[in-house]
């Protein structure tokens, strides 16, 4: 009997040996006898009858447990301006990859490249790029229409934005004249650029061609970084052509040994008529789109909310394949394998770098910033106050505008909005622990 059980599970044999012999037919003996009879018939399996106490039941790896949504989360941290941004990839991994590339270059071995790192397109991401561009257009149109009915204010001294009938009274202004105003904001009427922060990038006909120099920076047009990312991912726009390679580029280390030659880049079309508006730019969007009808506002708000989520998720997927660089000191973004050489970085210690940008891998918040604002539960109620600052929540500016227009807020934004916290009165706030 021991030899049979040892072949199945050693711990079961230890349990059986220590069990005293009982003459009366107890329930344990009956179960053991029933198990031995099935063993003789070779019908017993470990998962059916005998379980080892030291082994846990196996779970189906295809079933993933959904993580519960937290009740409250902290606000996005405000990075200090007198310090370089943290690397999104650990610096040790960057050094390790550089050592491997250098080792291959010293041996004269070409660097193995896959699309799109070798200049070719990824066919599976071309439909996604078109969908992201279409959602970007819907987002601009929806925000421009909603701003005719939803009031937005921006501080004239800092980058603070507020969505309500009047500006808040929270004393957190960091502008140059904030001391004279006791850190209160100087509110003016906002625009679409206060909701969708304009992050522009140079449009490159050939991302693997000549790098932009400081003297030639005005020969290239600047467009939204989201649009440039979609163009390099396969979207064809007649006004902004892009080179499509049929043969991959070859590199040894950091040196390109075969790029298929240099082609003459077409001149930017907007230099001839800079006032021509396009549907994927926020320039004069409030004038291009008229105010919506009152019964269409909830529908437009929901479409804008869905477009915002799709653009954000689509940009994240495209950035996993296509390289996007961001300056570690300022908000400059460059879509391409290498950053440009234009010297207009005026951030921390730019004199040491001669105005050059400190390029590193970008994250989605640098290409498509959320621009979080204070969440207002009652837009027609009293303005927010500094005494109750810790009881208020925040939300992306687009989400706040769409929510006040009648759209349903996705669950992932609710923890930061702190909807479950009851805002006390001013005299009750002192009694809260």
**What composes the largest sheet?**
3 strands, antiparallel
Order of helices and strands: HHHHHEEEHEEHEEHHEEEHEEHH
Strand order of the largest sheet: 2-1-3
Could you report the average pLDDT, rounded to the nearest whole number? Answer: 83
Tell how many strands the DSSP assignment holds. Answer: 12
- Supply Rg: 31 Å
What low-confidence regions span 5 or more consecutive residues with pLDDT below 50?
1-55
Q: What overall form do the CA principal axes indicate?
A: globular
Query: Strand fraction band?
Result: 5-15%
Oligomer: single chain
Distance between the ends: 66 Å
Percent of residues in helical segments? 25-40%
Structural class: alpha+beta
Number of helices: 12
Pfam family, one: APO_RNA-bind
Organism: Populus trichocarpa (Western balsam poplar)
GO molecular function: RNA binding
Protein name: APO domain-containing protein
